[in-house]
Amino acid sequence: MIGVLATVTLLLATFNYAQQSEQEIVVVNLAREGIEIVRAMRNSEDPNKASDVNIFDNSYDNQKFHLDSDDANTVVSMALNSATGANTASACSQCQLYLNDGKYTHTAGQATNFKRMITIEPGDSSKEKKIISEVSWTFKGQTHSYTLETYLTDWQ
């Protein structure tokens, strides 16, 4: 009887660990995608296109955003003084990610337990921005958060 109980306990622990590991892999990739979306915005700046966003003009400093990879030029601002007042991804209802045709978006689809918020902060110089991509998720009733940071320079 003890052997069966030990085996069942080990199987359940292994299953829980596998679920947690799978979610952590998704979280890391969602955070990396958030950074890459902002990098793509920086790389696609074209002064002849009105739809482009220049993250180096200081108008996006110290603001929080939810961005999708489908359209890197669409910025939906969530300033700290906005109606949501969210300072973290877990507290942000607009940051909810949905799974739609294998892609994570902030619009229609199957609701997931992931939220992503991107913050743009001034860097050490006028040609540098600090990009913070925060992903939060809930697993077994506990909220977790993962943050990835990078610095982008205005190289163009």
The geometry reads as: elongated
Distance between the termini: 69 Å
Q: Structural class per helix/strand content?
A: alpha+beta
Runs in which pLDDT lies below 50 for 5 or more consecutive residues are 77-83
Strand content: 25-35%
The whole-number mean of residue pLDDT values reads 81
Rg measurement, Å: 19 Å
Please trace the helix and strand order, writing H or E for each element: HEEEEEEE
- SS elements, strand count: 7
Protein name: Type 4 fimbrial biogenesis protein PilX N-terminal domain-containing protein
Short description:
The chain has about 160 residues and is α+β, with helices and mostly antiparallel strands.
Features:
156 residues; alpha+beta; 33% strand; Type 4 fimbrial biogenesis protein PilX N-terminal domain-containing protein
What does this protein look like?
By secondary structure, the chain is of the alpha+beta class. It has one domain (2-153). It contains one helix and seven strands, in the order αβββββββ. Strands 1, 2, 3, 4, 5, 6 and 7 form a seven-stranded antiparallel beta sheet that branches. The protein starts with a helix and ends with a strand. It comes from Candidatus Kuenenbacteria bacterium CG22_combo_CG10-13_8_21_14_all_39_9.
Question: What is the secondary structure topology, with strand pairs?
Answer:
Blueprint: H1 2-43, E1 63-66, E2 76-78, E3 96-100, E4 103-105, E5 110-122, E6 128-139, E7 142-153
Antiparallel strand pairs: 1-2, 1-5, 3-4, 3-5, 5-6, 6-7
Protein name: Type 4 fimbrial biogenesis protein PilX N-terminal domain-containing protein
